[in-house]
Amino acid sequence: MQNNLTKVQYFYGIRPGEVISLDLRHEHTLVARGAAVWVTRAGDPHDYWLMPGQHLAVEPGRRYWVSSDGEAEAELQREVAHRFPLARVLRRWLAGRRASREANACAAAA
After folding, report:
1. Superfamily of segment(s) 3-84
2. Average per-residue pLDDT in the chain?
3. For residues 88 and 96, is the Cβ–Cβ distance under 8 A?
4. ∠ at Cα 99 (94, 104), nearest 5°?
5. CB atoms inside a 10 Å sphere around CB 34
6. What are phi and psi of 97, to 5 degrees?
7. What does pTM read for this prediction?
8. Given CA atoms 65, 70, 74, 79 in this order, what sign does their dihedral have?
């Protein structure tokens, strides 16, 4: 079965000394831009330093804290790949067709 993929991107500007927290419920990829980014996640004893352009795959269901590493402003890019299975799209289309037919049949009978 074929999957249609769509990439959704979110961007966060991080000022020096600022810490943002992210509750990520799905698979994501974090990408550092502009300056190095410090990342730590709940339940993980390790911290991660991403140089500009480096990626970190995140685990769903965890909280992440992110900060600019240094005096420069950093940008964090969060990428999400949404999958739209063909079967789900077809089911929705068929349900819409059925509802349309039923509505037309009721209007014709009246």
Report:
1. Jelly Rolls (2.60.120.10)
2. 78
3. no
4. 125
5. 15
6. -65, -45
7. 0.62
8. negative
